[in-house]
UniProtKB/TrEMBL annotation:
Residues 69-95 are annotated as: Disordered. One of its GO terms (molecular function) is alpha-(1->3)-fucosyltransferase activity. This is Fucosyltransferase. It comes from Oryza meyeriana var. granulata. It is an enzyme of class 2 (transferase). Residues 292-468 form the Fucosyltransferase C-terminal domain. One of its GO terms (cellular component) is Golgi cisterna membrane. It is found in: Golgi apparatus, Golgi stack membrane. Pfam families: Glyco_transf_10 (PF00852). PANTHER family: ALPHA- 1,3 -FUCOSYLTRANSFERASE, ALPHA-(1,3)-FUCOSYLTRANSFERASE 10. Belongs to the glycosyltransferase 10 family. It is a single-pass type II membrane protein. Its main location: Golgi.
């Protein structure tokens, strides 16, 4: 009689036991030995974790968790778990209008209700699959370290107006490179590799005009190559960097490195950094006004901006500070309206605009010019003040701002439609709180790279560009 075949690993434990029972009936003389083997097999199978061979995962008992308080202060702990991956996610703004309108002023209460109704996991999942257009912002980490030619670059700051002195200093940059940024060429940056001009182009502009006048007086004596050599730097002289981040940005024709707000420029500088506004009062109110919904302040009275403001203010209660469409009795009313702003060292309204706008649920933000990637402090002031911008500006603002952080004014067919939407949000604490979820949940989208491409990081990024070119040792430009 042949011995029984070894059990297959794919058969279940009950079927294996049944097969062995048949063999035992036929070979009862071997009962003691077979019984011992059967007992050993049962013990062996009891030690095997069959979940490793199963196609479906086996649920395991969860580790005990500490008890969760059911008090309102811990409402965020009660938020629902995140939805399954790739499932449609509906958050508070998707259901705007389904909740009865109500007045509210306290931000923390609105946040607690949003935590319980939506929560950060759902918000993060909703925006997980979306990524900003990489063409909108330069990647400061993209250049290989092997392209750097100088381990240290000295940069002299000349001809600037609003670039703050606080940027001066020695920086430790990527790839082990260091960068000295200084306005003092006598004691500190005495042998610069690159010089920076911000409002005035490099000084060769003046000499160029002189040479062009001479060329026109004696055109036969001057060639195109000679004219070019007059305006280009020579090897051994520092590279010339020119920064123009106005909407009409334009190269001067005499710089080696051009700095603008667009990703197509040699070095990009955005308005999203902190160094554009280091002297303002950053006190932020904890409660929002419910009687006046919109804040606006402007002192450059462009008609297209004034028209938008006038139309919107016909449908929404608003306060307008500054010189344009002022309806608060003057431009110096911020401290009178809001004594909690506290700092009276300056009576200028713009030194307190962060504090003033933080008292309003919405801030009207209208750019001087509408252009791709041209998003200025008008957008970022409102975000940092804890308000929701009603934004008219860069068409690709979604690539620059945090996800779900602002209302795109241009997306509405009319001012009336926009105003109706703002009123709905203003009367729904759960929906309003969702405009702040990016900050509370740490969901930055393109805003993270936007900050990395701002003035805050310009010293290292400009020095890296100069290092890749060779600094003052770079060859002089030639005509192709």
């Amino acid at each position: 009689m042949s011995s029984p075949a070894p059990p297959s690993s794919g058969r279940s434990l009950p079927s294996l036991l049944s097969a062995y029972s048949v063999k035992l009936n036929r070979a009862y003389l071997l009962a003691p030995a077979v019984a011992a083997g059967l007992l050993a097999a049962v013990l062996l199978f009891s030690l095997v974790d069959f979940s490793a061979f199963s196609a479906a995962p086996v649920a395991r008992e969860a580790l005990p968790l500490p008890p969760v308080s059911r008090s309102p202060a811990n409402a965020s702990a009660l938020r629902p778990p995140p939805p399954p991956p790739h499932a449609p996610v509906h958050t508070a703004l998707d259901t705007l209008g389904s909740r009865p309108p109500e007045q509210f002023t306290a931000l923390r209460d609105a946040y607690a209700r949003w935590d319980a109704a939506v929560g950060c996991p759902a918000f993060a999942e909703k925006h997980r699959s979306w990524s900003p257009d990489p063409a909108a912002l330069q990647d400061p980490e993209a250049a290989p370290c092997g392209e750097l030619r100088l381990p240290h670059v000295a940069l002299a700051v000349r001809g600037v107006t609003w670039v703050p002195d606080i940027l001066d200093g020695l920086y430790q940059c990527r790839c082990g490179m260091t960068c000295l940024w200084s306005r003092n060429e006598e004691a500190l940056a005495d042998t610069p590799d690159v010089v920076l001009y911000e409002i005035w182009p490099p000084p060769d502009t003046v000499s160029t005009r002189h040479h062009l006048a001479a060329a026109m007086a004696a055109p036969r004596l001057v060639t195109c190559n000679l004219l070019w050599s007059w305006v280009q730097r020579k090897q051994g002289e520092p590279l010339r960097a020119f920064m123009d981040i106005e909407p009409t940005r334009k190269r001067s024709g005499h710089e080696d490195i051009f700095i603008g707000y667009h990703a197509d420029d040699d070095v990009q500088v955005t308005y999203a950094g902190k160094f554009f506004r280091i002297t303002h009062n950053y006190h932020v109110a904890t409660h929002k006004r419910d009687d006046v919904l919109v804040y606006w302040s402007s002192s450059r009275c462009f008609e297209h901006r004034n028209k938008i403001a006038r139309e919107l203010f016909r449908h929404l209660p608003a306060h307008s500070f500054g010189r344009c469409e002022n309806n608060v009795g003057g431009g110096d009313k911020a401290l009178e309206f809001y004594p909690d702003c506290g700092d009276r060292s300056s009576s200028e309204w713009w030194d307190h605009l962060h504090c003033a706008m933080s008292h309003y649920k919405f801030v009207l933000a209208i750019e001087n010019t509408i252009a791709d990637s041209y998003a200025t402090e008008k957008l970022y002031y409102a975000l940092e003040a804890g308000s929701v911008p009603i934004y008219f500006g860069a068409p690709n603002g979604r690539d620059l701002a945090p996800p779900g952080s602002y209302i795109d004014g241009a997306a509405f067919a009319s001012v009336e439609e926009l105003a109706a939407y703002v009123r709905k949000v203003a009367g729904d604490p759960v929906a309003y709180a969702e405009f702040h979820a990016w900050r509370r949940c740490g969901v930055m989208g393109g805003y993270g790279r936007n900050r990395l491409a701002s003035l805050d990081t310009l010293p290292c990024r400009l020095c890296e560009r100069a290092s890749r070119m060779g600094g003052r040792h770079a060859p002089n430009a030639t005509v192709s």
